[in-house]
Amino acid sequence: MTADRHLINICFHGVGEPGRDLEPGEDRYWVDRDAFLAILDEVAAWPATRISFDDGNLSDLSIGLPALVDRDLTADFFVLAGRLGEPGSLDAAGVRELRRHGMTIGTHGMSHRSWRAMDPATVRDELVVARERLAAAAGSPVDLAACPLGRYDRRLLASLRRLDYARVFTSDRRPARPGAWLQPRFSVRRGDTPASLRAEVLARPSRYRRARLAAVGIAKRLR
Q: How many whole angstroms separate alpha carbon 181 and alpha carbon 144?
């Protein structure tokens, strides 16, 4: 793949010891601090890479931010508005601190629920009220969104476009086109190493895998 045609989005979740009870299956996306730093050094050396963090965990501020600043890197932080100020999660001051260091704040919604099949009241809560709460905390507009649990469909994407989100991030584990509105990402998982991530992300996938990944994305957009 060439840098001018592809963008690699790498997404972290929690780092170190969680400061809250985890949801079922969430622990597979938590990595220890040493693994995080090693992977961050690895992906920082790749061409055309964009880094993000999901969920608004306190480790974004205590571990993620210093590591980024030390390496002169920036990242997008997709925060759950409903967890602001909760144990183990960012509060409004933490969001402002990320923003003060040049990080971008995006929304991950209100309650870490799937954004598929939402009724109108839930759409407003997840896509409008959460965004407003995060913008107030950050002191700047919020126009990026990351789909919780990696789930989306045609109806959701239409709602996000109608609400003027500038870019939407998913978890589809394939390279992105730099200017595309919908941005797939590779989520870092427990047990990943610089070598394993490099082998999965930078190696050209087989024709079958490319076709399968493309088909999954099309199916999500059309359902």
A: 10
pLDDT score for 203 = 83
What pLDDT score was predicted for residue 1?
A: 38
Contact (CB, 8 A) for 120 and 140: no
Q: How many CA atoms lie within 13 A of 198 on its CB side?
A: 13
Q: What is the pLDDT of residue 83?
A: 98
The pLDDT of residue 205 is 61
Strands (E), 109-222: 144-146, 167-169, 182-183, 186-187
Which structure tokens are listed for 58? 């306190």
**Alpha-carbon Rg for the chain in angstroms:** 17
Strands (E) across 57-202 are located at 76-79, 104-107, 144-146, 167-169, 182-183, 186-187
Q: Which long-range contacts (CB under 8 A, 24 or more apart) does 44-48 make?
A: 44/71, 44/73, 46/8, 46/201, 46/202, 47/3, 48/3, 48/4, 48/6, 48/7, 48/8, 48/178
According to DSSP, the β-strands at 49-55 and 8-12 are: parallel
- Please state, as a whole number, how many other Cβ atoms lie within 10 Å of the Cβ of residue 4: 9
Sheet holding 8-12, edge to edge: 182-183, 167-169, 144-146, 104-107, 76-79, 49-55, 8-12, 186-187
Phi, psi of 167 (to 5 degrees): -160, 145
pLDDT in tens, 37-65: 999 999 999 999 999 999 999 999 999 99
Q: Which residues of the chain have pLDDT under 50?
A: 1-3
